Amino acid sequence: MNLKQFGAVFAAAALCLAALAGCTQEKPQASDMGGDLLAAIQAKGEIVVAMEGTWAPWTYHDGSGTLVGYDVEVAQAIAGKLGVNASFVEGDFDGLLAGLEGGRYDVIVNGVDIDKDRQVKYDFSVPYAYNRTAVIVRGDDGSIQKMEDLSGRHTANTITSTYAAVAQKYGAEVTPVNDLNETFELLLTGRIDATLNAEVTYYDYMKAHPDANLKIACLDPEPTQVAIPMRKGEETAALRAAVDKALNELAQDGTLTELSMKYFGIDLSKNQ
Known about the structure:
Helices cover 40% and strands 21% of the residues. It is of the alpha/beta class. The longest helix is centred in the N-terminal third of the chain and has 21 residues.
């Protein structure tokens, strides 16, 4: 090989190495943007959103297997306001908050209620929905008429949900489960006395299972505030402000009302 041939081979190899380096280059992180998560999200053109994907009509898969639901469209609308695409990660609810702390995604959009314990660990957006908690029992069970009747009863929920916390507040013993389908299976087979969940989730389940032997025994008089949790700290300050701005605009232009009516048949976007 003469010098000219060697130079050509060397140049070709250098081009290949450069191409490989470009292919393996990581997307920008908050640490690359002076600790600004919003800047990192906008630099890579994507916000990573976590949700269950098994909790209709908030987040679920339709007959074709496509991820759909109220929170899916809310997340996509927020992403549009930020000028990026929404990328979804699914998982069991009890692992979502831990994954947020670990930085595996940017936000959770999954009907998450604000409560005092969560506010210690996470920062929340402004509320974008208001939820009433229903005590759901078998249709032939008349023993639970009010929240206080949960004392000494057996319920089931994902253990880190606010529904589990409400059940425990009224003296119920909570069995941990992975998702809503498992909860209703335990209830229908008589292995638990009741479960607590969103009133609208009950109506959606009954729409899909009209013969299910279930009913609402009572409603918690205090509505919960649904918001978007993020990691605490200055890293997310700009992102929180941008998400709040997006949610306020979506409320003012009627988008949240339209999506709520589409998926729930009532307007959850207002504290009525």
